Batch of 2 targets.
Target 1
Amino acid sequence: MQRIAVLGGGAWGTALAVHLARLGRDVTLWARDGALRSGRALHAAACVVSAIPSHGTRDVIRRARGLLPPEATVVSATKGLEVETLLRVSEVIEDELGSDRPIAVLSGPSFAAELARGAPTAVAVAGNCEATVAAVQREFRSGYFRLYATQDLVGVEIGGAMKNVIAIAAGAVESLGLGDNCPSALITRGLAEISRLASALGGQRETLAGLSGLGDLVLTCTGQLSRNRSVGIELGKGRPLEEILGKMRAVAEGVRTTEAALALGGRHGVELPITAQMADVLAGQKTPRVAVEELMLRRQRSEVEVE
Ligand SMILES: NC(=O)C1=CN([C@@H]2O[C@H](COP(=O)(O)OP(=O)(O)OC[C@H]3O[C@@H](n4cnc5c(N)ncnc54)[C@H](O)[C@@H]3O)[C@@H](O)[C@H]2O)C=CC1
Ligand SMILES: O=C(CO)COP(=O)(O)O
């Protein structure tokens, strides 16, 4: 897997391209408005890493379809859901490229800037076949980048997408200055909510206790570099969402994921109380303070749910 094309010239695509180039791979980075049409970016690629925001993935993959070498593995590094279809990103890719295509997903606690400077980082890698997962694990690893293999695509992708929703909530709670108990409860109950949805969709709860669940949740809810957390901080100050997003150049996937996750929960009969409150907050229908009060006043229940 020597030749690698990275689609997406944002922070994450760039960091992954830098990392792979450092490993001696022959890397091409395709940024929006780049030369995808000419096929130069994808020519003879053994592997294509997709680090496009979730809302742009289908379009870019569709445009890449005819240019992709038939055997090329596609590795999704995106964390989100397709709002219109409620599909996970690997499902979107499969929808466009067919179920024979080797597809893997990378997800876990990994701020782009830290990977780019070679800070020790560990992620999960899942895929639609064991050999694909093993190949990605082998080809992407370095002294500072470690990949844990799993076959649980659902768990890994739901963990990566949903942690962004809880991170927005964590930022809002931080802004309200409610102390340390509240964010801790939010992270824990957020994890319960994420695990419930993943499990209903066929994922394994154990996956959510791993890097693409708890690991990424802790990083994004507490890390200074998180864009999702920073959206929450601004919401907590009372700024409207449009104004916050209008000033942001980077993507905060949790904003769109909130709506999609809530719809997925509804479809599968899964209660997502924090996500539901965040949907109201993001829609400007409720303040974060009221959302916290309503969560606290919910009917008390068992901590561990019996399925
Ligand atoms: N930044 C990070 O630390 C990490 C980000 N991710 C995920 O990677 C994905 C990409 O995020 P970043 O690179 O951070 O985003 P970014 O905000 O740094 O850049 C987004 C890039 O996507 C391009 N883009 C936007 N809309 C597009 C569209 N419709 N079609 C094609 N390209 C489009 C933009 O031009 C820009 O180059 C997201 O799903 C994010 O959650 C995952 C792990 C770490
Ligand atoms: O996914 C990330 C770290 O694992 C990046 O989080 P943000 O998109 O909130 O910056």
Target 2
Amino acid sequence: MKEILDAIQSPDSTSADFAALPLPESYRAITVHKDETEMFAGLTTRDKDPRKSIHLDEVPLPELGPGEALVAVMASSVNYNSVWTSIFEPLSTFGFLERYGRTNELAKRHDLPYHIIGSDLAGVVLRTGPGVNAWKPGDEVVAHCLSVELESSDGHNDTMLDPEQRIWGFETNFGGLAEIALVKSNQLMPKPGHLSWEEAAAPGLVNSTAYRQLVSRNGAGMKQGDNVLIWGASGGLGSYATQFALAGGANPICVVSSEQKANICRSMGADAIIDRTAEDYKFWKDETTQDPKEWKRFGKRIRDLTGGEDIDIVFEHPGRETFGASVFVTRKGGTITTCASTSGYMHEYDNRYLWMSLKRIIGSHFANYREAWEANRLIAKGKIHPTLSKVYSLEETGQAAYDVHRNLHQGKVGVLALAPEEGLGVRDHDKRAQHIDAINRFRNI
Ligand SMILES: C/C=C/C(=O)SCCNC(=O)CCNC(=O)[C@H](O)C(C)(C)COP(=O)(O)OP(=O)(O)OC[C@H]1O[C@@H](n2cnc3c(N)ncnc32)[C@H](O)[C@@H]1OP(=O)(O)O
Ligand SMILES: NC(=O)C1=CN([C@@H]2O[C@H](COP(=O)(O)OP(=O)(O)OC[C@H]3O[C@@H](n4cnc5c(N)ncnc54)[C@H](OP(=O)(O)O)[C@@H]3O)[C@@H](O)[C@H]2O)C=CC1
């Protein structure tokens, strides 16, 4: 592994040098274990502690198949899907690996008693499998997390519709929270040169998801002037949705849970901000009964901020707790676009407000390769910036996932894999200097 790191850090290394590097038989990786899936039985979601289920193991290097690449991972990031994996909710991810393993001989590699998790990476290609022409050893890359087979016709308009669509490092093995990752070559994209490894690894999953959900025609198709209600506007998804709204000439109405987070939104350029803790919205009277009066109070607050206008697009992901309010505050003909249900997936809303006002609910999930590429291109052009707040070592991944589970973090949380320290991997110093304040906006807060 030392030889690999030396090659990455040497400015003189060529593609041939990387191709000639011997690959290790094993590497360090963040895992959850199949024989521990019941370890949190009986506990509430909140009390399930990722620090107990997340392990750092030495694992064997997987065989490289056609259309695939082995990547030396310099840095990765924590996504909420790794929180779900680590608390075995809503179901154990080993079921996904078993199901994938049954599909063909090569996919059997994924069905193991351990799951190497993680759906982001920035690093360097070490080897490519047969049939890979677009990438070569030595390429500095980031990887998006869409894994598809594309044998069926269904996915050929929009690859997210492939029946064998999976999220890498969640529904497949050999994810990014490791020193080496196995990806399909059509997950690879160029690493933005003005960013360090950990900065480049941070946006991938959430930036691509927010791009499809909010900007793409497959999602809400946001346009200039739209009022966009963004839940968790300084969180993983929300910090990119807020940037897309601002960069696209829309008006973000940012919901956050503290003054500190409100200030982060202001620093991004937003001025319509709702602190849901300070204003104490209680959309549910009890576990089963919502309070439409509270939807109205929330809607009135939005009207105060917009000069009397309602919401064109809701960027939804908290789910059960907020969905009734989200449907209510959307304007006639508006759109609620949802990609998640952090607070519960059995949503309840008053359907009269949906059909009588011709509103639409759009389900959105990750992004196709083109959408992920366009989202990454905006990062590379310095139009959208990473929202990295804190960086942990691979050994500390359990704590990093705990922070995200308990909503103790801001923006994105990074993890160093092979990178020995933060700040390495920057190739375009001039562009970095142009954007340095925006790049550091979330750091250490
Ligand atoms: C990029 C980052 C993303 C995120 O962070 S997202 C957040 C994290 N992700 C999640 O929380 C999602 C986790 N996944 C799940 O909870 C489950 O994954 C799903 C609920 C999405 C799917 O459930 P399942 O049980 O895996 O699959 P089924 O499709 O429900 O299959 C169950 C059986 O139901 C049959 N079935 C499906 N559709 C129909 C139909 N329309 N009519 C009749 N039967 C149907 C199937 O065939 C199958 O059957 P048979 O068990 O016999 O194989
Ligand atoms: N389908 C897909 O492709 C994707 C789905 N996801 C899912 O989206 C969800 C959010 O992910 P991500 O943004 O990375 O997570 P983060 O935890 O980084 O951010 C979510 C933010 O939502 C807000 N929030 C949390 N709970 C509630 C609640 N009950 N009511 C109102 N606001 C709430 C919090 O902000 P605050 O406290 O400031 O209000 C929190 O910071 C997860 O469930 C994740 O699995 C994520 C990426 C892709």
